[in-house]
Specification:
The chain is an alpha+beta fold. It starts with a helix and ends with a strand.
Length: 187
């Protein structure tokens, strides 16, 4: 009977240990997800600290404009990534230096012939669109409603990669930024 009591006590001890380990794992996972949840991240879209971190997570260099209007601040105020390494995308939000002017958003796929992850696009409602050119590349200029606000949007491909620039300000600024977009180390 002493061996049986010891066996029951050991089973209870192992059950409590398993419960504590499981509860700890759930608590750690919940605390790890809390910052993303507070930032509004979905399961597949995450806010990261910098462009460099986005490139590390995605395993690819991002295309960035070499032309930036003086009114925009660098670095981006928000950098989000979605998708898997080598086939995801990124969204960069650039705010006005004075905090009052219109923001610009650059959204892109990181691999040729892959779509931009929908988690980065929001749910735009297209109000109208027309054909355009970014340099010699075909593009689409559209007016969209996004989260209740009207945005001008420019969609094109650079090196086979889907790109979108959005603003609530000057459309010519978008075209100049789009024409200058390139991956670091690429022409």
């Amino acid at each position: 009977q002493g061996a049986r009591a010891t066996g029951l006590e050991l089973a209870r001890l192992l059950a409590v240990l398993a419960w504590v380990a499981g509860a700890t794992a759930v608590a750690i996972a919940g605390l790890g997800a809390l910052p993303g949840w507070l930032a509004g991240d979905t399961a597949d879209a995450r806010t990261v600290a910098s462009v460099d971190e986005a490139e590390r997570r995605l395993g690819a260099r991002l295309a960035l404009p070499s032309y930036f209007p003086e009114r925009l601040a660098w670095p981006p105020t928000t950098v989000r990534v979605a998708g898997r390494r080598g086939a995801g995308g990124a969204s960069l939000r650039l705010s006005a230096r004075d905090g009052a002017g219109p923001a610009v958003e650059l959204v892109q796929a990181v691999a040729p012939n892959t779509p931009i992850p929908p988690q980065l696009l929001g749910e735009p409602v297209e109000l109208g669109a027309s054909r355009a050119l970014v340099g010699a590349r075909p593009a689409v200029r559209a007016r969209v409603l996004l989260d209740g606000a009207a945005w001008e949007e420019l969609r094109w491909e650079r090196d086979g990669r889907a790109m979108i620039l959005r603003t609530q300000g000057d459309v010519e600024e978008l075209f100049r930024m789009a024409r200058s977009a390139h991956r670091q180390g690429a022409p």
